[in-house]
């Protein structure tokens, strides 16, 4: 549970491995996925590292496997994915994997060469027949084949390099040829170059080599060319016979390969990852031992030791590995253990910023608060049910859906957040039940507590009728759970429905917001206590919590007092017409003014309210200089007591008792810059920077308390907007399908219902859901996490085969 509420305790370890055991030990660590290795060769080029040749061999094997996979797909052979996770093979097994497909590739390359030579002999005969002048002058020539798109730059290079002393003829090969290395169809051209002299011959051959043209021998005499052409045709026929005979064998080989190709990919990628990791290690002076440094969770040290022992036993080495803990002043990585349920919520937090080391993790609280705040804005049981059913489908079918590895980014986002969507849907169903809102209609489960005496003709003819709770129409006790269904009836309640829901949802959003911010400030106390930042507790947490409680929590208390003390049947001074406005009361409280009310009403809700309010405002205002000057003055006094200069350009001499006493005094005062594990709460050394930073924090908190409280009104605004859009969609679309009669009414209802369903899902569920999601995200990132969360850490990225294979499966094919 410690990793859930606060990141794991990490330690830097030094690892000594025998060279013959290093491969097997790193393989075992890759299966565990609990060690993040540091690069001990940062200045060494990637091509100069010890295992660069092994990495290249793995790249070549992976390329061949991709070609084999392409051939299997081309033949329509289904590839078997058993879901197995084979261990990384031993290095000697690389030779067996490298032998894949070499014979077939050699046959295809031979066939390509003969086919190109056939085209050269045919085309050059045409060239010689056209160039009659070759019988009068003695010319040398070379003939070959080149990719068609390289002809223009090839011709320009020949002209410039040979200064126009060569003659080039070229002709296109009409049919595409198959590249034996990757199976792609390529278009090529035959060329012949005439020249005189050995110097030009050398220059021409170098240019051909530079453009990767393939040169073939071509006899000068026509008879020799015809004889060679006949021989080539005979060899092509023989090779066609061989290739035809091997076609069935190739198919059988591909069928067998389809059963194992997934495992081959896994093995090759594991081998490549191991050698990439070994390239991060250092060799000792004897060249027999590899040295590594890695970050590991303290709780998993024993598990890592056991894995290293297993690797040593697999390799047959007699020397055990050595794992030593090291002291480090470097910030450790942040590691929060997650599962498939908590991973999505942790990703929401990391999108804002990775938590500083051992800082309070907001994710476990976000599991509850995020879907709840979303549901406050999205409260509709019908829309929540659609969202819940969609998420439930993804959760129930998560294994087959995860195995499909879709390339759609939108689908992957939905699938990765399936548990977030599920909770948002369930919470939306709950808040929709509280709002008594199902597709803008109500459920009269317990029976309305309003007894309407009007007949329908009166209701329809008078649009200004209002529900008055002070009459006999109201039974004087509330609906058991949530809103009374009368507010969704429509025409009866429309005149004061918006007024009632506005007041209800506006106050509700402020209450939720103040409690949410108070909880964030309380979490900062947990941070300060854990890191022993006593000065932050005294000069930040205490004035912040006092400021928030004395002003905004008091406003929340006024709301509850108003709800309890003022009712429709109360005497005049506490009746509904004398109920003071909370907003006006709060503004007058800050301005030290009294509210203007009718003579028969009292401006105050309880005795002594004005005195209490003046005291609360004065104490809240005193918190501002307390936050602004308290901590900098405390740091100045602590440094003077410890004889440390206040200017950061002058540092005390290292070594002596005075420096040790200074550190002890600062530690006792809680004002020194903490160790790297202090969760991002480091203090600047220059006292002017301390004053500036504290001033920024104070202004941000005081102004933010007002703006953040107002920001929670988005809960009210989006809730009303969602309800109104749902009602408009019902009245303008769905209601029209219910007015038709006779047999065609069913057809019209079916068509209109389909149209209404599309609009409901597209606008109210998807677009409104995305809007509510983004607003909820902002409330958590800004209004909630700004109270305690710095997010200045970096993520723990262990060497893990599971992560490597997942990222390789998600990446597009190269």
UniProtKB/TrEMBL annotation:
Membrane topology recorded in Swiss-Prot or TrEMBL: Multi-pass membrane protein
Transmembrane segments: 372-396, 416-435, 508-529, 541-563, 612-630, 743-767
Compartments (UniProt record): Membrane
Main location: membrane
GO MF assignments: ATPase binding; proton-transporting ATPase activity, rotational mechanism
Signal peptide range in chain numbering: none
GO biological process, one term: vacuolar acidification
Superkingdom to which the source organism belongs: Eukaryota
InterPro entries named among the record's database cross-references: V-ATPase_116kDa_su (IPR002490), V-type_ATPase_116kDa_su_euka (IPR026028)
Family the UniProt entry places it in: Belongs to the V-ATPase 116 kDa subunit family.
Protein name in the entry: V-type proton ATPase subunit a
Native source species: Timema douglasi (Walking stick)
Lineage start: Eukaryota, Metazoa, Ecdysozoa, Arthropoda, Hexapoda
